[in-house]
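User: Predict structure, ligand uracil.
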Amino acid sequence: MVTRDQRPGTHPPRTTDERERGDEIGRHLNSLSELREAVNACKRCLLYRDATQGVPGEGPDKAELMLVGEQPGDSEDLEGHPFVGPAGAILDRALRDAGIERKEVFVSNAVKHFKFEPRGKRRLHSKPNASEIEACRWWLGEELKFVQPRLVIALGGTAARSLLGHPVTVSSLRGLPTPFTEGAHVWVTIHPSYLLRIPEQAQQRAEYSKFVRDLEGATAWLNRKAK
Ligand code: URA
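Assistant: Predicted complex:
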């Protein structure tokens, strides 16, 4: 069980210094649409400097199921929506195959700004570090407070780390309900972009099926809990 101090979203009111830095910690947000605007103005770490915009989570105001990825990629950064690029295409397919309607799920990320390294005209994804993940946890905590999911699927290690408040090995928690907050559990699985990096087709198919089974397992668990 995650303790109160570890839980994202539990912070003391912001200080004058934090306010002057544009820090949102302690600020009272009234709605997800207010949060959307505020994420875009966030300067809690330096990733805002090179990113096009902050990309907040999207979905119903309240949802039983929430999905959390790592950070926006190139397409998400340009379009301002989570999971709309190549990883999003695999995620959409896997959700369909698992019988989950994306429009009924709240989809977000652990980190709200795109971190990348320029390579010629391309921008190559770069993994967020511990302090960037930590700086962004407040936003995820706020989203959790609004959406109130009963199950949060962590897509990969960065999401799991942000949610649980400590580094996590995906294989150790994969496909199991992990107690999270009073009303919610976390369900850890792989990040869909892992599938894009598997060169061998048969292995890619096998890992994709395992990913779909994780998603099916998560909804089956949710449905059992609802009875
Ligand atoms: N990868 C993520 O983790 N999130 C996105 O929104 C897109 C790609």
